Amino acid sequence: MKQTIIIIIVAMMALSKTYAQGHGPLFGLQTPTLAKGGVDFNAAAMSLATKDDQSFMLRYIWSYGVTEDLQLNITTPTLINRLSEAPRTRGNSNMPANGDIEASVWYRFFSNAFGVGKRFESTAILSVSTPTEDTRGGINVSNSLHGAISTGYASRTWYAWVGGGYQYYLEESNDQLGDLPYASLVVGYRPNIFMGDYPKPDWRVFVESLAEFPGASVNAGQISPIDQRGKKVMLGPSFLGLYGAWGISFGALFPVYQDIVQGPQERYRLSMNISYWL
Amino acid sequence: MKKIGIILVISIFSFGSAMAQLVKVDQEVFGMDCAPCAYGLERGLKKMGGLGSIKVSLNDGKAYLTLSPDNKLTLQKIQEEVKNNGFSARRAEVVLTGELCKSEGTWQIKVNDETFQVTSDTTREIIRSLNPGIIKARLLIKDKSDRELSGTWEARIEEIM
């Protein structure tokens, strides 16, 4: 497995011709894809706190732009502290929040650059994940499929993205984690003070919001007695700084509404991400 | 005498070819909003070779290219690079040296296998002053769809240099 990943990375680097963009919110869905032949490496530190426990995870993401509209991603985790009972959620567009290895394809199926620094675009995401643990919250965990779609506006001053996604877990030894429909809304702003031209550093702030509706899990062939979806709305700020080929983003999400049927209540999510465009 | 004539023709032709090139391109780029966008485009354009200097401005939405004296770059190649970075290449202001000729009643400037067709909105004074041969001029290149990039452009001559 390790060898395969190294081969993929080396092949992607060898194919690299030009470089790229791919920058957006930390938690929510986004639309930008890499340039044709562009390669991007991300290292992220993530933490999710519940009432009684807190996870710590490092994540690495390699992305490759097949064309300016088609991007491949692979992400692998290093778990420092795993939650014994993890809420069902996602980390962001191409990151599972839990210890899954995930490969995804992004397809920017619509793009209209209609002004200096301005564009509308829409992107579809399809992912497959495989877990790195056997059970999650006492349920045998299996591979899963994830699909999402987002659309948004980018300019030199304002950004906005809206989207929705769905994660479906396959059955494993008579157990099945409940599905996860979710919606994402992000608004971004670049203050005047950060309107300095390239190659000056480029900062922006986002307000991010996620609404998640985890479904009931199946345990030993039996669906939960309370067969209804949980509801959770998370809201928080994030910051993105870009300089040349480097990007750093950090932020937090806090629950503003939680009606959880299964699993623990969340207190907050933290994330920090460093990007390098090769 | 015949030999001298041939040598003369070849010399003139070689001189013309060597002279025909893009000198400066200010390429308008739509959809470029961030530092990595500019960084990616700058590196992509540099990779093409033939550049003397380059400056990408996010606030102007432009890539300012000064080309090296013996470059073989084409505007099509430059605009394709913009497209490959996920942006839209729009109008361009170009300074070039090329071979001016008239074809089917239309003035054309030929540079590195590209043809710049002079449009009717060029001022009468400039049109009247045109003569076949090598010309150095500043042109405003009309916007063309990113999906229809080719080596033929519509251009208004802004200045003969």
Automatic annotation (TrEMBL), chain B:
Residues 1-20 form the signal peptide. The keyword Transferase does not apply. InterPro entries: HMA_dom (IPR006121), HMA_dom_sf (IPR036163). Pfam families: HMA. The keyword Signal applies. Keywords: Signal. This is HMA domain-containing protein. The lineage of its organism: Bacteria, Pseudomonadati, Bacteroidota, Cytophagia, Cytophagales.
